[in-house]
Amino acid sequence: MTITLFNTLTRKREIFVPLDKKEVRLYTCGPTVYNYAHLGNLRAYLFDDLLKRTLLFNKYNVKHVMNITDVGHLTSDADEGEDKMLKGAKREGKTVWEVAEFYIDAFNRDLFKLNILRPTILCRATDNITEQIELIKKLEKKGFTYVAGGNVYFNASKLSDYGRLAQLNLKAEKSTKARVEKDANKRNPHDFVLWFTKSKFQEQEMKWTSPWGEGYPGWHIECSAMSMKYLGEQFDIHCGGIDHIPVHHTNEIAQSEAATGKKPWVKYWLHNEFLVVGDNEKMTKSGDNFLTLSLIETKGYPALVYRYLCLGTHYRKPLMFSYEALDGARNSYRRLTDKILELKKEKTATKEEITKKEDKALTDKYLTVFTAQLNDDLNTPQALATMWEMLGDAKLSGKGKYKLLLQFDEVLGLGLKQVKEDKIPVEIIKLAEERELARKNKDWKKSDELREKIKLLGYVVGDTKEGYVVSKI
Ligand code: AMP
Ligand code: ZN
Question: Could you write out the DSSP letters of every residue in 102-155?
Answer without folding.
Answer: HHHHHHHHHHHHTTPPPPSEEEEGGGGHHHHHHHHHHHHHTT-EEEETTEEEE-
